[in-house]
Amino acid sequence: MRTSFAHGPKPAEFQRYIVLHDTEGTGDADSVINWWDASGHGVAAHFVVNRDGSVVQCVALDNIAHHAGYGDTGHNDFYGTCDESRDDKVGADQIGGWARDYGMNSYSVGIELVHVGGSGPYPEAQLDALDNLIAYIDAYYGSESTIIDHKAWRTGNSDTSPEFASFLANYQSHRRHAVQ
Ligand SMILES: [Zn+2]
């Protein structure tokens, strides 16, 4: 965990969403985290899931992480994420009038999957690890957070990639990547 990645308190009563991302790079979790750190923007997700199923945590669940960034104007109302006051917004750069809402980070846990869109399947070990991580987060909060992907928050964002679509549907309905 790195303190530069924590951007304010996120007490359990504000937890609503799990936001899934692709790293869009081939580097493993450690190299992704070093890249985030070096960028100086304070960007990070709470967890990064490697292709071999190992998981690295970068930010405590009770802290805000900058993983979702700005979303479509109107999405704070749509998602019920209107209170941005707990977020220090350090390093956050506005991207235009179409995407003014910044509330999602204050109400969510971010998970990055090491994956490049269009590069082929997600390994079973990585998906199994995500199953277990979501179960851990559900148990931590004692409730089931709504699962979305990054492009649901910001239209036109690349992650998660199209090859994740059936898994996302299964996570949203059954909280696991495969429905038996
Ligand atoms: Zn993302």
From TrEMBL:
Its EC number is 3.5.1.28. One of its GO terms (biological process) is peptidoglycan catabolic process. The keyword Hydrolase applies. Residues 4-161 form the N-acetylmuramoyl-L-alanine amidase domain. One of its GO terms (molecular function) is N-acetylmuramoyl-L-alanine amidase activity. It catalyses: Hydrolyzes the link between N-acetylmuramoyl residues and L-amino acid residues in certain cell-wall glycopeptides. Keywords: Cell wall biogenesis/degradation, Hydrolase. It comes from the Bacteria. PANTHER family: N-ACETYLMURAMOYL-L-ALANINE AMIDASE AMID (PTHR30417:SF1). This is N-acetylmuramoyl-L-alanine amidase.
